[in-house]
Design a protein that fits this description.
The chain is α+β, with helices and mostly antiparallel strands and about 525 residues long. The chain folds into 3 domains: about 70 residues, no CATH class; about 180 residues, GAF domain (Beta-Lactamase, 2-Layer Sandwich), CATH 3.30.450; about 230 residues, PPM-type phosphatase domain (Phosphatase 2c, domain 1, 4-Layer Sandwich). The protein has 15 helices and 18 strands. Strands 1, 2, 3, 4, 5, 6 and 7 form a 7-stranded antiparallel beta sheet that branches. Strands 9, 10, 11, 12, 15 and 16 form a 6-stranded mixed beta sheet that branches. β2 and β3 form a beta hairpin. The protein is rod-shaped, with a radius of gyration of 43 Å. The chain starts with a helix and ends with a strand.
């Protein structure tokens, strides 16, 4: 008995959904006409008509039919439209909706303007009081309300806190359903009763979900899906006149949601392209700023020749070299390698350069003080530690060449030992490794310095690991042996020629492989 009752209820509901005002009017008129004919042709009224005139019953039937036709025409033209506007939803053209949305997608000046157009078109066509569009955030996966209608009929971006969590109850249900989800107002009260004994965290999450749905007046939720993911949710409030959303309405909304999914994906692609283009512009600007931080040309000197080269691996980098000339005829030579790559390393590099220039200038302005290069590097270490909190470090080599005495004093703070090459001597190559640990890791560090006697023809090459660790196509490093070989073969050339030959050899060695690390080195030759 129960299945039969359910089938009867289902058929009755289907019949009610298909019953239009025009059909109801026709059924009512037919019943009225049948009742009139029955009234005239039965009982004593039929005998009275027969006595009045032999064919009076046929004439009465014809008159009833004529009156029925006249009444039908009048009601169809005047009454049905009025009643339909009150008791039936306004008809709409599905194909026109989809066509207009396609046109607006091509002409909209921004994604939020397009969201507003889609919501407005749906509200006007289906007579929905509230229409909102939730879009999935790529970072956290929550669904943020990007556009919503107000009670006054205005459209605006809602407060950013109106969102549905990725693990919200309705979100989970939508993911598992193939069609739209109807949310009745009575369900909100049922949620509250069901969660009365739940954990506080779960109760708070469901309360937040209920508040978000009530703020946008949600009654029908439609999935906005791509092939792999639900990228958004289309929320509709109740229809004006309290009409229900029919199966055809839901099919139209799912077609609109499919178009909206493409819009969301295309907008995200466009946003990524714009962000990448903006990032490229910022990187180009940063690279230009960093290039200007490097010395434009080495200082003029009668005692030494100087040359430097720096080529970042990613537009900007953490390698750094510098030349400084002081009034007391001292020449400063610095090279450093910040741990890491990219923008963060470049920022620390600029801090390093500014700090070093300030400290070295102050030390050389007051030559009567007892501060040594080792003291200056220790001070530099403490200042960098204060800036980074020990989270980053820099390998650093700093030397000062006295143009009068031809003495080179230096401190090596964890950097690749520079090579000192003395042509024609048995101890031709020597590494300059005296100093201490890298700068920036520990708050207090002590360093040592060493002074070397330089002679005419001596070569000093200070470099970062981007030179020695340059990889070939087979994965082999360029290595210190090849650096020494290049210096020995080019010792008779000028520093610029030595620089160019080193670059040529490294580029040839690494042909066919991307640059792995920043490539930086400094060449000094005693005249």
């Amino acid at each position: 008995m129960a299945p039969t009752l359910r089938r009867l209820t289902r058929r009755t509901r289907t019949w009610r959904q298909r019953l239009s005002v025009a059909r109801a009017e026709f059924y009512a008129e037919t019943a009225l006409c049948a009742a009139a004919l029955t009234f005239l042709m039965t009982g004593g009224r039929a005998l009275w008509l027969e006595r009045l005139w032999p064919h009076a019953d046929a004439l009465a039937a014809v008159l009833c039919v004529v009156l029925f036709v006249l009444l039908h025409n009048f009601v169809t033209r005047r009454v049905v439209p009025l009643v339909a506007r009150r008791y039936s939803p306004t008809p709409y053209d599905e194909r026109r909706i989809l066509f207009d949305l396609g046109q607006e997608a091509r002409t909209a000046r921004g994604i939020d303007e397009l969201y507003g157009s889609v919501a407005r078109r749906i509200a006007e066509s289906l007579g929905a009081d509230d229409v909102s569009i939730f879009v999935r955030e790529e970072s956290g996966g929550d669904y943020l309300c990007r556009i919503s209608s107000r009670a006054a009929g205005e459209w605006a971006e809602p407060a950013r806190e109106v969102k549905l969590a990725r693990d919200a109850f309705v979100v989970k249900r939508l993911r598992s359903l193939s069609g739209p989800l109807v949310v009745e107002s009575a369900e909100f009260d049922a949620w509250s009763r069901a969660l009365a004994a739940a954990a506080p965290e779960r109760r708070a999450a469901r309360a937040s979900e209920r508040e978000a749905l009530q703020r946008v007046g949600a009654h029908l939720l439609v999935q906005v899906r791509t092939r792999e993911l639900m990228v958004g949710i289309l929320s509709l409030g109740t229809r004006r006149g309290r009409f229900r959303y029919a199966a055809g309405d839901k099919e139209v909304l799912m077609s609109v949601a499919a178009q909206l999914a493409l819009v969301i994906e295309n907008s995200r692609l466009a946003e990524r392209l714009v962000a990448e283009e903006r990032l490229l512009r910022e990187l180009a600007l940063a690279a230009e700023v960093q290039r200007r931080l490097l010395p434009e040309r080495p200082p003029e000197s009668v005692a030494v020749e100087l040359s430097g080269f720096c080529q970042p691996a990613r537009g900007v980098g953490g390698d750094y070299y510098d030349f400084m000339s002081f009034d007391n005829r001292q020449l400063g030579i610095a090279i450093a390698d910040v741990a890491g790559k990219g923008m963060a390393a470049a920022l620390l590099m600029s801090t390093m350069q500014a700090t070093l220039r300030s400290l070295s200038a102050g030390s050389n302005l007051l030559p009567q003080t007892s501060h040594t290069l080792a003291d200056m590097v220790a001070t530099l270490n403490g200042l960098l530690w204060n800036s980074t909190g020990g989270l980053n470090y820099v390998t650093f080599f700093y030397a000062q060449f006295d143009q009068h005495t031809r003495r080179l004093s230096y401190v090596n703070a964890g950097h690749n030992p520079p090579l000192l090459f003395r042509p024609g001597r048995s101890d031709g190559f020597r590494q300059l490794s005296s100093g201490g640990t890298v700068v920036g890791v520990f708050e207090h560090c002590a360093y040592e310095q060493e002074t070397v006697e330089m002679r005419p023809g001596d070569l000093l090459l200070a470099y970062t690991d981007g030179l020695s660790e340059a990889l070939s196509a087979g994965g082999e490093e360029f290595g210190e042996a090849r650096i020494r070989e290049a210096l020995a073969e080019t010792a008779g050339l000028s520093v610029d020629e030595i620089r160019d030959e080193l670059v040529r050899r490294v580029v040839k060695w690494s042909a066919g492989t991307p640059q792995y690390d920043d490539l930086t080195f400094v060449v000094m030759k005693v005249r």
